[in-house]
Amino acid sequence: MSIKGRGLEITSNLSNENITENENQFIMKKHRTKKMLKWMVPLLSVGILSTVSVLAEANGNPGIGSSFAPIITVEEMVAVTVRGKVTSTGDESGLPGVTILEKGTSNGSVTDIDGAYTIDVAGPGAVLVFSYVGFESQEIVVRNQTNINVSLEEAATAMNEVVVTALGIERDQRSLGYDVSTASAEDVTQVSQENVLSSLAGRMAGVTINQTSGPGSSMSVVIRGATSLTSDNQPLFVVDGVPMSNSLNNVSENGSGNQVDYGNAISDINPDDIASISVLKGPSAAALYGTRAGNGVVIITTKAGKKGKDMGVSFSTSNVFERPTRLLDFHYKYANGQREGVFNDGSAYWGGPQLDVGNLAPQWDSPLDENGNRIPTELRSYPNAMRDFLQTGITSNNNLAVSGGSDKATYRVSYANMLHQGMIPNSDLVRHNISTSVSYDIVEKLTFNTNFNYSNSSSNDRPSTSERNANPLEAVYNSSYIDYEGMKGIWIPGQEGIQQIRTPAGDNPYFIAYGMENAFRRDRIYGNVSLDYKISEDFNFMVRYSLDRSDENRETKIPFSYSRMERGGYYNSDLLTQESNADFLLSYKQDFGKLDFNASAGGNIMTRFGSSTNIGVGGDRNNGLVVPGIYNTQNIPADNRSVSSGYFKRAIYSIYGLASFGFDDQLYLDLTARNDWSSTLPLDNNSYFYPSASLSWLANYTLNLPENIDMLKARVGWAQVGNDTDPYNLLPLLSTGVYNDINTAAMPSSINNPNFLPEEATSIEGGIELNMFANRLRFSGTYYVIDNRNQIFAVNLPRSSGFSSRLINAGLIQSKGLELTLGGTPLNKNGWNLDVDLNWSRNRTSVLELVENFDQITLWGENGAGAITFIGEQIGDMYSRGFVEVQDPNSPYYKWPVLDNAGSWQRMNAVEDYRKVGNFNPDFILGMQTGLSYKRFVLNASFDWRQGGEFMSFTYRYGESDWKSQRQLDNLIPGGLYSEDELAALLKSNPDEYIIPRPGNFPRVGGHTAETGGFPIDENGSDGAFIPGVIQTAGADTPDNFADDVYVEHLGGSGTNVYPITNTYPWRFNEQVTFDASFIKLRELSLGYRIPNFSVFRNATFSVYTRNIMLWTKADIGIDPERAFWAGSGNQGRSGFRQGIERQNVMPWTVPVGFKLNFNL
Amino acid sequence: MKNLFKFRKIAVFLLGLVLFTSCDETLSEINTNPYGIDPANANPNLLMPTVLSAAAQNYLQLGYNDLAGAMQYTQKNGWYGGHNNYSWEARDWAGWYDILRTNDLMLSRGEDLDNAFFQGVGLTMKSFVFGNITDLWGDAPYIDALQGDEGGDQFQFPKFDSQEVIYDGIIADLQAASSLLGSASSEGVTSGNDIIYGGNSNHWQRFSNSLLLRYYMRLSVKKPDVAKAGIEAIYSSGNYIQDPSQDANLDYTGGANDIWVSRHVRLNPDDFQRFQACQTFVDQLTMTNDPRLTVWFDSVRVQWVADETLAVEAESFIRANGEPIDVIYTYDEFEEQYADVKFTRHFNPNMADYNTDLYVGLPPSLLIPESYNGNPIPGQGTQNLHVSQLDPIYGSPGSPGDILKARMMTAAEVSFIFAEAALKGWNVGDAETHYNKGVEQSLEIWGKSDMYDDFIAQPSVAFNNTLEQVMTQKWVSNWTNGTEAFADYRRTGLPDLQTGPLSPQPEVALRFQYGDDEYNFNPDNLNAALNNLEVTSFSGNFGADSQWSKPWLYQGTTIPF
Questions:
Q1: What is the percentage of chain A residues whose pLDDT exceeds 90?
Q2: Is the pLDDT of residue A49 over 60?
Q3: What number is the average pLDDT over the span A61-66?
Q4: pLDDT in tens, A252-292
Q5: A582/B97 CB distance under 8 A
Q6: Peptide bond preceding A509 in cis form (omega within 30 of 0)
């Protein structure tokens, strides 16, 4: 909310320069137009017109304080009558209600409805103070003037911030009874991002943003915590009144192990077109959007031209370069193989012979002797393999905008492109945007507005990043001893296109990167047309039609010899979604003296449909293509060609209204009401009504507060929102398929519900805002409670019922949260300005009630446990499977694992044996933005600290089960270095450290070699290890009676089961890979320089920046906890996403460096 | 409020007036999926292949996989938890109940349409699937099962029925099925969709009667009279699977939806190499010169040769036709390029001990199976040059009519059941005749009919009037039907299997643990059922729900322990 303050210094300086500019305007104009054309030609030849009216903003707010210092001289005291008109800058109409005080006296006056005033003052020495809420006060010395016209500047702080609220209605932030966070154009574009959502991370209290993988992958926005058990909890995006479809899970698997994340559709928006973003967080704010606003609303307003402005051109370009900085914590000490003495190039394990010590082995690139046999060569490590494989990622953003307006019309046209070359070779992402915005006064009272946007996003190759097989980065981690540079040729000579160069351990990363291609192309059109009719001064009528249509084609080509598809494959899918909204709004506003009244009423018809068709390789994945290298559907064998299609349609009809009352600029009351009729609910229950109310009180105008307090506001809001469900959830339908060439049908395993009620969320929120010291200190706090009732979600049934789940309406899920923001301008003098904004938030969601017979909700299950919430507990709790441990508190072995006779942990599968290992929600999130400016230099930084919470890492589960991680080696107890007795004594000296499993480590004793503590096994090596614990020899059959329990220690003495170390991994226990998720990230850091105007170039800025730099993670394993999102089946609700667990996040951390230049003509 | 409703009316009117979106579809029409099939109108011909393919494939999956490990046909050298050492914790039965759900719809559609064929097939498959469930786990939801869509606690959380109730139900259903199938016509049946019998109701009747034989024999200890009467009656009817052409088989066609070890294996060559012969089975087959050995298993790639002159324990290289070569080739290269080459490796028997046979299996439940018999490249998916793996036919694409099939019930099994019944003195003819027939029928389906005379003439094979011999040959003939061998083993303790060091208990396990799913979502009924399991001295820390606890059928016996 106070973010705008940062731009203050810049704009005020600019406007000073503009004064001289204006004087020369006539002379300049001709010259400029000519020069502009000269510039336009090459830009046009690039392709298309574009936009960005940075001009408009830049001409905005001049600085705090008047430059007219009051100089009081002693003159003759003669009473004078002064007249004049007060206007606001940039608007010729008068400001009513401005107070005019003669300084040092109680003499005062107020402007009338036209902004005119009259005041009698003591004489020429008098000083008039003009003040008005939301504007900077001005002091003017009367001298010998009798007519003083004053133009007041809007206060450039949160005081009067205008925010876009529901239905696009602009409101004074101070009048709102609920919390709305905003970001300006500058915030969004300071640092170029591929996805506009990236720029919101860490900026807004209560808004959590996660990305699943690298650039171009899906981003999740969750506002005030996940509350819906079935949806992906993503907010509704509304761009210029057009609801945009956006989903979280955009992953599809095209070919075995080839999972590709095609990214959110919301990334189709060009950040440079954005004028402002408002985030309506609670139901109070979002109630008018109804059904779809349950998770909050992100309202994006794009830039438009301004009336009476000459044509302006703005241009910006940026380039970012990215290199890897931090890799996974892998050791590169041992070659592939499962035993110390045995090199095995087909093994996934890094448990073979030591590297770099002269061990010889015949390798894939060893030279051949005269018989064609490989001559053994030295096994060396290549820890830089990943850095060598990755190339410099480059992202280039260019934007050109033209805007302007006449008396009757405004226009803005913008063209932007984004070109991204990924760090993974051959991967890319390209986006072109064209947007136009036009308004035209057809007749005096009738205005026509239209926005039209076209975006084309495409890629020749999106890398597969969240699974193992087709993931080129995972392939680099397949082997520790290979210099992959040598495999760059990809194909075995003479077998081009048929057989890649690889080892049995896995695919050649260059083959995956260059050979397997996942292309997509998405054309998206969104926009609206509307007519505004000003019926009278008080009445306004708007009717609008908007459309958002997205057409996407995905095409995957897989060549012969891919390890999971020996004859390659081809996949082609078409996806179409379209949403249209037709709405109208009738608005009325009236000012009854002290009472302001606004009311609106409207209605909306929404229809959405989607369809998809997919063609690809069928169930026999090794029978993909007939002829190598030909990628079309005919080349898939007819009996192994899989074809499918999908379709859905839904509609919601709505009417709504709102009324807001403002009393004396102090007290504001908003009331809203909406009724929806949804197609997805049963006919009897498909209508639902929900109201909201909010109250805001500006206490500083009511109470006599100390002078330092600029604003003290208290607010409270209450709202109820309804929600529907997905289409076709009422009645069962058979699923269909084929068995070889026979058509089949099957009964679905989930039970639908013909008797749904709408979901209902009731929220109450209260907050306080306080601005002090000329708005140099700004605080706001919000506390909210949201009760979600009647949630529609699936409860699991035992499979013996014949069904796996049943959709029900039930439960009470309650979210509580606190959001605090603190902003300050600790420094503002001598050209220096420092702004600091902090936001802190904490959200907790608990399951308070469920339906009878269910005491738990499983968000996702994995490896015998998962993210499960029991009644009374919190959403996000994560559990790991139990194991048998000594339960007798009096036993010396209390809590030790009870191993089976073969010396291994014993699984316990019952719910009561689950071990709670954490919660995926952070304890709190702290975001910080700072802006420091000095004259023409501006330094901005944005930090994000998430404290607490846990995540499970399946990157490490796989990596460590293959014994690749250094961490696991470090945690080994080098038992072979001790005598039997010493070892037992050591282990028993600290069982918590050496024996008892805990998150992150299940202790094991041994090593890869005799020198590192391994035990001798056989001729293949001394790489033995065992699991410390006890073996129960009596009393196991009476688990509740400890008296007859007998345990034998399993600590390395005789009878200890010693295995090759690679056989001792706790694969069945996710606790081994549960880590603390705390981290601090530097989201953005930019240093900008405002270039003085020269020639036709104005408002030019050059900046250098970087972003998303991980500064610290508690887990310290090279995994970004923010990416603990796993896309795949076995879902969290219906979203297909699992929060709190990550899989194959092998993308290294990076430090990008970017340069950005923008200017106006 | 009144004004509000008035407002709503006006608003709706305006909406209709102003907006140009056509609203000719009502909201409920929009929510009707134009492409869906209503279960109430389902064509049972579409449901039948779903049920049949899944049932046969699930059965095969168990039979060649984990239960083949338990019954010591095979062992695996990687990912061997469930295969070699009875790591059968938390076995979900979702796959079986999923089949039953669709089967139930087929059954009720058969009733709606008054079609005896679909009713008969439905009851037969219901019995087949429930038979597997109770064989493997013990008590299970049966009477109240599969009706979760009726709502209510009784059906959403079905109680567990005792194994006895389930077996009784199976027998009653099979009798009903047999009677329905006896009068069924082919009207309304798409023969191609009957992927087992092509719509032949007589064969279906034989299958249901043969399943009756299977389950009567299961009950032969607990309910000998019922078993005797039932088996004798079916024997006298002659209406059972008499010939391999009547076997209940799903063809392995090489199509995309096949599931067989071979398809599985072609998808993942590593996995193929994980399946290796078990020494217990190899010993039996080699002892009797069984011609099926070479059909099922491949010889070792490299045979050990004892050579006392060697100075080292074993040579680090292998020899091609006796000549040393440096390279250890992978499986594919052997097959394609060196079919005629005899590979060997030499060792000194005074210093080391290796199995020098041409066919070598993994002993059961080894601690480190991947290293067995001097494997120079131990790994969880790598080939062991010195141990036999599956024959290459299991890695071939397959086509209709191949000897590889998903076998649910065979003529050989029926013959061995009659042989066993005859040994009990029941009135089912002569034990030797049935035994010989069983052996012959099994050789036939593996393409070795011509070897029958030689094979049966051997002293170790020729009928000796013992149950052990009958059960041992039945065990051999049950290759890839490990589920049935497992049931026989638990009932008779035959063949006398010994487990190995990696097994958590020194005995072969007896059952699957109940799955997480029932533990999580049906805990009360599950816990009640646990009381019906007999804890044995090998149950260990798992308590009643242990792999080594005894369900009703095996309670009160000392077989196998």
A1: 53
A2: no
A3: 33
A4: 889 988 988 888 878 888 888 998 898 888 777 777 887 67
A5: no
A6: no
In this prediction, residues B125-150 reach a mean pLDDT of: 97
d(CA A362, CA A870): 55
Q: Report the residue of chain A nearest B141, measured CA to CA.
A: A800
Contacts of A903 (CB under 8 A, 6+ apart): A1026, A1027, A1031, A1050, A1056, A1057, A1058, A1059
Q: What are the chain A neighbours of B502 within 8 Å (beta carbons)?
A: 902
Write out the DSSP string of B490-555.
Answer: HHH--S-----TTSSSSS----PPPPHHHHHHSHHHHHHHHTTSBP-TT-GGGTTSSTTSB-GGGT
- Within 8 A of A749 by CB-CB distance, chain B residues are 98, 101
| β-strand partners of A609 | A578, A649
Closest alpha carbon within chain A to B88: A907
pLDDT digits (tens, 9 = 90+) for A888-904: 999 999 999 999 988 99
**β-bridge pairing A667-678 and A687-698:** antiparallel
pLDDT at A159: 43
What pLDDT score does B417 carry? 98
A59: its two tokens: 């001409």
Left, alpha or beta for A224 (phi > 0: left; psi -120 to 50: alpha)? left
Segment 361-420 of chain B within 8 Å of chain A by CB: 367-368, 370-371, 376-382, 397
Tokens of A504: 């049995």
**ipTM computed for the complex:** 0.92
Cβ contact (<8 Å) for A651 and B49? no
DSSP state of A734: B
Q: Return the percentage of chain A with pLDDT > 70, whole number.
A: 91
- Whether B326 and A362 lie within 8 Å, measured CB to CB: yes
**Residue B553: φ, ψ to 5°:** -60, -30
Nearest to B27 among A582, A651, A797 (CB): A651
**Interface with chain B: mutation pick from A479, A562, A799, A806, highest number of B CBs within 10 Å:** A799
Bond from prior residue into B158 cis (ω within 30 degrees of 0): no
Q: Quick one: tokens of A589?
A: 């506003």
B322 at the A interface (CB within 8 A)?
A: no
Q: Which residue of B has its CA nearest to A727?
A: B31
CB contact under 8 A, A620 and B94: no
Tell me if chain A has a CB within 8 Å of the CB of B453: no
Which chain B positions have a beta carbon within 8 Å of A653's beta carbon?
15, 27
Amino acid at A310: D
Q: Are B148 and A803 in contact (CB under 8 A)?
A: yes
Q: Mean per-residue pLDDT for A82-88?
A: 84
Looking at per-residue pLDDT, the higher value among B124 and A64 belongs to: B124
Reported as a single tens digit per residue, the pLDDT across A131-164 is: 876 677 788 888 888 888 888 876 544 445 677 7
pLDDT for res A134 = 64
- How do residues A730-740 score in pLDDT, each as one tens digit? 989 999 988 88
Copy the structure tokens of residue A826: 């600790």
How distant, in Å, are the alpha carbons of B74, B88, B278 from that of B83? 8, 9, 11
Phi, psi values for residue B513, rounded to 5°: -75, 150
Q: What global pTM score does this model have?
A: 0.85
Question: CA–CA distance from B346 to each of A293, B247, B302, B321, B350 (Å)?
Answer: 76, 46, 10, 12, 12
Q: Distance (Å) from the C-alpha of residue A386 to the closest C-alpha of chain B?
A: 25
What count of CB pairs under 8 Å joins A to B?
314
Q: A801 and B313 in contact by Cβ < 8 A?
A: no
Question: Among residues A28, A189, A144, which one has the least CA distance to residue A1084?
Answer: A189
- What is the mean predicted confidence (pLDDT) over A736-752? 91
**Cβ separation A623–B256 shorter than 8 A:** yes
pLDDT, position A513: 96
Residue A430, token pair as written in the block: 């390209």
